[in-house]
Amino acid sequence: MATKQLTKEGLELKDIVELADAHSHIDLITNPIVIKDAIEYGVKTIITDGVDTRSNMECLRISDNVNIFAAIGIDPEHCMAMKDDEIEFNVSLIKENSKKIVAVGEIGLDYKLATTAEAREKQKQVFDIMLDTALDLDLPVSVHSRESFADVFGMVRDKGMKKVHFHFFDGDEAQAKEVAESGYYISVPPYKSQKRAKALAVMPSGRIMGETDSPIVGSSPKSVENSVMFIAGIKKMDYANAARLTVENTKAFFNIRYKSNQLSGLGRRQ
Ligand SMILES: [Zn+2]
């Protein structure tokens, strides 16, 4: 091959580059050393997504808007048993923290979990509320879609959402093209798959991010290096450039520079 594929192992220590994890649940990582270690390793931007009341509060608490940024929302799993007053409480939480958070997420539809028409209706109802809240506040959304791509895509497009991130993208090539044509973003987990390779191949480089979904999928945000390696291979880039690209894309999608600056000097929450 003419293109030089620089592996991560081939990098000099001085070349170790910055990384960004576009989707995680680090509120579930009980050992704080794991997070500190990931940041020291180079994962300077970590998005932690809330899924319910408890995790939303926790993500807000641990985000410092320096390295850790919170997205809060109600995901399709936890929305199913949630009563109206708790949904309203979370909408208020998003509104009150709209300057601090970087997105409304994790939200979406999961038809593997919701198998009845009633359960799917409930997911759609909550997803609709979450999308309206994001629209009102001009915030990006991080969406979860499993066996529900057509409905998720239809809802975000019909509402005219501008900034949509399909996390853990598992769509096919045609779906990736629809995502790309709408100017939306995807992120890929630290695992390779043939289907995802085809989807990545048709996605413009400027719309791709890496993620870990840690600690559920990757054990730490550090595993985002494997997402970056995967992206590098498909896009025929070396590791350092792929890392740089995903960091730029993540910062652009979540308005990281603006969110970091906005709170500096105002006193960061610990
Ligand atoms: Zn997740």
In brief, what are we looking at here?
By secondary structure, the protein is α/β, with parallel strands linked by helices. It has 10 helices and 8 strands. It has one domain (17-263): Metal-dependent hydrolases (TIM Barrel), CATH 3.20.20.140.
Characterize the structure shown.
This protein has 270 residues and is α/β, with parallel strands linked by helices. It has one domain (17-263): Metal-dependent hydrolases (TIM Barrel). It contains ten helices and eight strands. The chain has helices at 32-41, 53-62, 84-96, 117-137, 149-158, 173-181, 194-202, 224-235, 239-253, 256-263, and strands at residues 19-24, 43-49, 68-72, 103-110, 141-146, 164-166, 185-188, 208-210. Strands 1-2-3-4-5-6-7-8 form an eight-stranded parallel β-sheet. α3 (84-96) runs parallel beside α4. It is globular and about 55 Å long. The model is unreliable at 1-5 and 264-270 (pLDDT under 50). The structure holds zinc ion (ZN). Zinc ion (ZN) is lined by residues 23, 25, 49, 106, 213.
Structural class: alpha/beta
What is the C-level CATH assignment?
A: Alpha Beta
Q: Biggest sheet, open or closed, and with what strands and sense? A: 8 strands, parallel
Radius of gyration: 18 Å
Which fold name fills CATH's third level, the topology?
Answer: TIM Barrel
Order of helices and strands: EHEHEHEHEHEHEHEHHH
Layout: helices, strands, pairs:
Elements lengths: L18 E6 L7 H10 L1 E7 L3 H10 L5 E5 L11 H13 L6 E8 L6 H21 L3 E6 L2 H10 L5 E3 L6 H9 L3 E4 L5 H9 L5 E3 L13 H12 L3 H15 L2 H8 L7
Parallel strand pairs: 1-2, 2-3, 3-4, 4-5, 5-6, 6-7, 7-8
Helix pairs in contact: 3-4, 6-7, 8-9
The protein binds zinc ion.
Zinc ion binds next to loops.
